[in-house]
Records
---
Amino acid sequence: MSTPSLLQGASRDASTLFAGPLAWTEDLTVRFGRRTVLDRVNVAVQPGEVVTLIGPNGAGKTTLVRAVLGLVAPDGGRVLRRPNLRVGYMPQRLSVDRTLPLTVRRFLALWRPVTADKVEAALEEAGVTRLADSAVQTISGGEMQRVLLARALLGEPDLLVLDEPDQAVDVHGQAELFNRIAQVRQRRGCGVLLVSHDLHTVMARTDRVICLNSHVCCSGRPEDVSRHPEYHALFGGHARDLAVYVHHHDHAHAEDGKVVHDHDGDCCHG
Amino acid sequence: MDEFVIRALLAGGGIALLAGPLGSFVVWRRMAYFGDTLAHSALLGVTLGFLLGVNPMIGVMVVCVTLALALVALQRRRNLAADTLLGILSHGSLSLGLVALAFLETLRVDLMAYLFGDILSVTDGDLMAIYGGGAVALTGLALLWRRLLAVTVDEDLARVEGMSVDALRLAFMLLIALVIAIAMKIVGILLITSLLIIPAASARRFARTPEGMAVLASVLGILAVIAGLLASLNWDLPGGPSVVVAAAALFLLGSLVPVRR
């Protein structure tokens, strides 16, 4: 990771002058009722870094993202951000009520005062210029994802946060979206925090993978994680067949979600 | 034309003008039943106003806002669906209003006028309330317009962008309460919601932007007021219901018109 130069910093925001992560958690704990969804989770996103969260259904990936966004309040620990950090959020899906007449162009202009030129530029960067005058209710799931990317870019984010596109987006569409996000990262130098079920799609474009199952199971560079036994158990044999994969652990979970080790383990617990 | 007819047209037109944009939001946010519930509680506000010796409109505002806040608090519990809660509050508060009114034996209150409106007896004071309150409500709506649209599209996104979603929702409820307070006299508390949603629903098919829908809803609402009032005068029909029938007829007509997309 390179520290941003003063010149860059001057043209952007004071927040880029700070060293250290864009956003991070300290022992973040979230409970829904009696269930501990996140158990003392420590994650950080550095400037320019792409961090991918993987893990089974119910692992707390979306909850972690929502906590980083400030949409879920922690029951323990903290979520911290650089001062004046600009976050661009791309939700999993977005459906606009059919009663609301709204074009894509207009949708993009709702979130902050923006000039028409900036809207055009964002449409182009996300590759959805031809959809500008379509009603938001008529575009496909994949197109909506790119419109949501354009929306996030309009806020000139330091950190782009996105939940995995849902099943409405096919694998090809997802790969294209992630390519685009990788380009955006290159061009703008923003950090990216993303959630994925499918590591194959994001593997080549990720700097760091965090394997989550309420707690951080393991984390590291994708090639290291992909050699990790736990990763193989998670994704190796059943690539993209998410419904049937078995989540093998080097440890067991006690009733309350606490980790019970059954061997020394080489799994690095965050 | 008689003076009372002109006043009726001005009052109804003012309400319809305001109901266009606000009613569009009620439609977009799927809050028709919510509006109905607030309107039904207005009778209780009127009674309270009489009891405490303050303007009934103020009583209506207070009761509507209290009810809106109670609803928000009740919804947090999540063990009853929103429409069930609305049903309880709507009919509970309407009945409470009727019962409380019955206690005011010494006072002669024209109940029918509050339930169904009495547009032909509009006074200059009513007109001032409509245009004063309407100007306040329209200004507020214009100032909050973009943010209210953003919250309507997606509350999470609005929150991440730093908008105070709860404050915006409360402001919207206040605007509805204000409209109910000033529109009560015209169409009555049982019919207020129809003036909010019918013109907006009629406008939807022809609109390509939120603003287009709001403006067209106002125009259709004003047309309904004019048609309804003329019918009421010609054939000696009740004013408020005639206006609503005219609005519903416009909706039906509109849905027959082919729209090319």
---
Amino acid sequence: MSATLNKGIGVLKEIIDAPIASFFSSCVHCGLCAEACLFYTETGDPKYTPIHKLEPLRRVYQQEYTLTGRLTKMLGLSKPVTDDELDAWQPLVYDSCTLCGRCSLVCPVGNDIVYMVRKLREGMAISGHAPDGLVEAAGRSVEIGSPMGVRLPAVKAQMKHVLEDTGIEIPLDVTGAEYMVLMSSMEIISFPEYLAAIARIMKQAKKSWTLCSDAFEATNSGIQIGVSDIARVLVQRIVDGAEKLKVKTVISPECGHAYTALRWEGPNLIGRPYTFDVLHILEVLDGFYDQGLLKISGFEEARLTFHDPCQLVRRGGVLEEPRKLLKLVANNYVEMSDPGKMNWCCGGGGGVSAIDEAENLRLVAFKTKKSQLEATGAKTLVTACANCRIVLEEGLEHYKMNVHVTGLTEMIADHLATAEINSREMP
Amino acid sequence: MDHETLGERLREQGISRRAFLKFCAAMASIMALPPGTANAIADAMSKATRPSVIWLSFQECTGCTESLTRSYTPTLESLIFDMISLDYHHTLQAASGFAAEKSRIDAMRNFYGKYLLVVDGSIPLHDGGIYSTIAGRTNLDLLQEAAKGAAAIIAVGTCASFGGIPNAKPNPTGAVSVSDIIKDKPVVNISGCPPIPAVITGVLAHYLTFGALPELDDLGRPRSFYGETIHDRCYRRPFYDQGKFAKTFDDEGARNGWCLFELGCKGPTTHNACATTKWNGGTSFPIESGHGCLGCSEPHFWDAGSFYSALSMPASALSLSTDAAIAGAAIGVGVSIANRFKKRAAKSVHVTATIADLEKQHE
């Protein structure tokens, strides 16, 4: 089996549904979505207008599913979508779309544009027009278990480090635990602080939790590249793990698309409801605080601001929780411009950070975040997504900005009241 | 009536050269001609032979004639009547019966090809046009006869221009406009219910001065008077631009003279000179008196929804013939069934994608 144009077009015919038909029919070509897209606002190039990125999908819809389109196709007045055309669209559908969903939010007729980009990627991938970086990541996810090639021994090494640092044993494969904690490979490799933070918070809250040796990876390359069949395999692993350990709640880590994939797309992918709940770590922490399980002491005095991960605010509704939590530990918290659901993307979501060819464009798009950040005057940037975090760090490095980036969960863990838990030995 | 030149006629009437020049200047300005044209008008008009005018009244209310006679510049407007030789006009002529009809027939014969034909009122066509007859002859018959020898036709009022109120739904008499019937003569439409008197005189002055009809818009109306909308020139326009609207006829906004758009003013879609020329000798015009424009100089103004609903409201429910609806629904169902099959076919050939499916074979 290999990718072909025919298969790709077949997939597009398959994924075109009532919402897509109504979206294309109701588009009034106002162009407002352009102003909502940071790739357009930073480059001024009209090809980055979100609805324009969907042109191949629109043409397939028109030629296959509308009366006039069928007639013009029959009479040879409209040309079918070609491989060259899809190839030309690859940078528009992948490199310059982070699936941030800002366009969907501003569309005056309510067209969910990002939903359509996600669907168009199905056909792009199956016709062989997905970027190599994403194809490779998807391959590692399926074959190794993680897009970055992380295997269980690496996780076990992390667990050992946490034990040394905090004195807390990380539970693995504990049947009947209340929470099953997932991580993104980025957290396993680059931000080990996350696992330590979880361990300390769970200890203070006296909650039972576990990692799962079959399903520790939360990210879903299938969603990013846009192949539901692969996304389903990856979701199924987590579902199987959680159901085997009979946990009540699976905690999505500080990762935007992992949360979207598992909580919102997952049940539709596997075709049934879960037997457990899925919550983002910030929702869990907020719940702990409300139940009096989170005792905080001390404040961050530095001026800090928060970067809303797109998948959490626009696609997931986690809007108030980070602000409530930040105010517990920060004395000098300032909002960025366009906070919450209208926040601007870091430029690396939707798999863009894994596409090598997109790097230059991504750094151009980062200028939006840069100017937002400069306007706040903050020296610490807090976020709740490991992918945002790495993209932000790279952008700040490129523009030589002296801003420290950290995760909100870690920041909360650093302010836990219990002295015993707080006495972390620095390596 | 003799047909001496206008200049001689005026001197006979004791009208001073000064008063005449003032009239010409006023006409030049009202028709938006360059200021220097006033002298040209005076020159041309004083030399002009008074043309014979035959005025025919059909299905009408005499409001147009009333408008003309109630004009508040009597010396000048009566002067207009001295500019032309009005050889036949129901309401204004002294003669009646056979004598009246004879003067019409004489004028048509003596000035064949030269006289101006003025028409007010619409022409009924249903049932052989029997709904309006004069001296036993239908309006249609009289119009076709008089039009033959006319140099040009001036349709005065909305009825003659566009059918007007007689043409309103359900139009029992089959009323139509002059230009619906006469296709081989130049027709000027001076619409309005009634039209502004100065516009009637202005068109006549233009014809006398230049020997031709003024430039017309797509509805056959002189551009100099109908080129802009009431809204374009309305003194309440600044309130519209600021979004300040009267909501009822006696609220604070109405008292402050705010825009009457929401009370149904048709000014934005009505082309006429009311807002600049005004009525009753320049006293005011409907909007200045606190009522919205009815849009009387536009075709079908009577059927364009309530006078009191805003222009942004639809005039009538969308009507669609049952056949078209059924045909549309059938095509819709057909396409949707075809689409369902196509989608099902696409689904049925779906093979679960694996990593291998993402690599393109390069030959």
---
Amino acid sequence: MDNARNNTRELVHGLTALILALFLLGVSSGLGVMKSIVDIWGAVLFIPEYPAVVMREIYLSWRSWSRDKNILSSEVSRLQNENAYLRLELAKISGGKVFSDDKNSDMNTARVTLRAPMSWWSEIRIDRGSKDNITQGLPVFSRGYLIGRVSTVSTLSSWAELITSSSFMIPAVIEETRELGVVAGDGNGSVLLRYIPAGRGVRSGMKVSTAMIGEELPPGLPIGQIAGEFNIGNDGYTTYRIEPGADLSRFYTVNY
Amino acid sequence: MTLVILWLIQDLLTVFTGGGMQIPGLFMLGVVYRLLFSDNNNDDGNLWAIWSAFAGGILWDIRWIGIPGFFTLGYVVVVLIVIQVWGIIPPQGRVSGSSLLVFILLECSQLIPPMLPVLILGGNTGWGYFLMQQVYSLPAILLTMYIYLQKARDNQV
């Protein structure tokens, strides 16, 4: 009798748990509070996970050393940071908006702590927050190329919107022709340059960077290069596919 | 407490590998292992397993997926399958000749949770992904099965 009663109770509880899980699945993706919960849980786990983070860093460092590439890779990384910093300084000198008051000569590095499959091409979370002087709108780089900008800031972490996000739109310029357009993501991993008038001699390989118009980002930040024509609209404007300078499928740290 | 430790070990291993390889679902192996010894005649039956899996799944989703529900669903489904299938077998028949069934139940705990998100969302995750995941999980499954069979035989004697 008890066994039968328990079977029924297990079934009821099991189905309740299933329904709750499905309900959470349905509603939580649209809840803004989820990011806060994810951040809080990440902060709670920071302490128990710390040994694993340290061990991972030690292992990666050892592996790099064992291949005799440690010095070389750090030198390349330093030069990339310096290159990106110099581009930013150039942008400031040429009249762009100064977005950082940090007087350090090197760019800072942040670790990517979450890249959710549901928003793979839209946003990432980094382990730097307002305590590290991160502010909303701050551009984020990988290998010296713009990959997004900070969208939400909390004390210990921040979220950055990627250039592949469908809601990411910034004015950009083709450096060789000075044609202005809008760089926008499609949410599926592609980056497009829109609103370029047809027949302006734009070719593959031409460099694309942020434009001076608009106040959100300073001009001159490198984005990538023209990869090819995407389509020509009936309105006479051409959309080009951009090959980002950064590898958006494989980055574990970002610069800011 | 054991399940909490297993969850943390699974989490730490995932942090350590940086997502470079699939970590066996140690937490669910622990839940299924305990379920295999569970006696359904006590007051609460196997309710602990259902809600432990639910809580473990939510925490895993919040930590690694960003949206609660995916692994929560998978974990609860696995627990229900184990409870229903294991409940059919009479206690006398759960040691002799049950190796294959134990293996299948443990395998379910490793295959279903990561597969559900792909089935729900779609995407181009190939069978190679799941094959590699099962290869990584196989040692943990076999070890759990070995420990179970040893302990079950000792209890029977």
